[in-house]
Amino acid sequence: MNTKRLIPVVAATLAVAGLAFAGPAQAKVEGDTIILGSAISFTGKYSTNGIHAKNGYDIGVAKINAMGGVKVGGKSYKLKIQYYDDESTPLRTAQLLERLVNQDGVKYFLGPYSSATTKAAAPIIEKYKVPMIEAEGASRSLFNKGYKYLFAVLSTSEQYLASSIGLAAEIAEKNGKKASDVKIAMAFENDPFSLDVRAGVLEDAKKYGMKVVIDDKMPRDLNDISSTLTKVKALKPDLLLLSGHSKGAATGARQIKEMKIDVPMIALTHCEAAKITSKFGASTNDFLCPTQWAPTLTYKDKYFGTAADYDKEFKKTFDGYKNVPYQSAQ
Known about the structure:
The chain is an alpha/beta fold. 41% of the residues lie in helices and 18% in strands. The protein folds into two domains: 6-155 and 293-329, Rossmann fold; 158-284, Response regulator (Rossmann fold, 3-Layer(aba) Sandwich), CATH 3.40.50. Residues 15-24 have low confidence and may be disordered.
């Protein structure tokens, strides 16, 4: 995943908007500043990652402004983001985007956090023909509807845990077993993102002929998956997969430790945002955790330089980060 794709995409989208000042996507301008809008989660179950995403947007806009802004029609403009808290509620996301268009006059959006809220946003941006760049809604269902105003800069969710299936098959064969001997246990949040992660797992498991012995939905509050883990103890799968955003990851890591779950391979999403290493220590050392970005990536761009440079600048800008969450970097 390209760390800084969002910045050139924002700049290019606005530059194309020499368009920007005629027609349905006329930008809101205050002096020499173009106002962007975002309804994103500062409260509710997505708030941790919503704030990570906001920090990523803010450092990106600051960098664009420091480098002279964006040029539209031969004139340079700075950028500013007008935020609202969608409270991690899709209905509220849709309401706030309506407000941004109809009351605030904003005609360029940065996306919310999560597939569920992005799914709620998509019909609004199509209705008003307002471009939205999003980096946090990964469900495939967002990209097979023919939306014309939704632009994304991330890998889709079915890819998040799929590589763990291939790795499990490889390990089985190295140990003299068949890939089809691998038994899988999994539990997923009942939301568009996690269900799409599940679909990707099932597709890959089918290729290898693997057997899914546990296929559970996490409880709505994501507070307790002990019933799933009790079955894991009894059925002894080779691979345990979990996806429930940050809260589900934290619950899973905590209860795996508390219940002394011993599975050869464990993979889960949102490890970074859940801070499972700092919270649960050595018990998480062998977990597999997908990420959209890493500070060791070797490419560089004109905005931040290398991924390591971005890592350093982000930590200097925002206190309290031991690692840069991919939700910010992407």
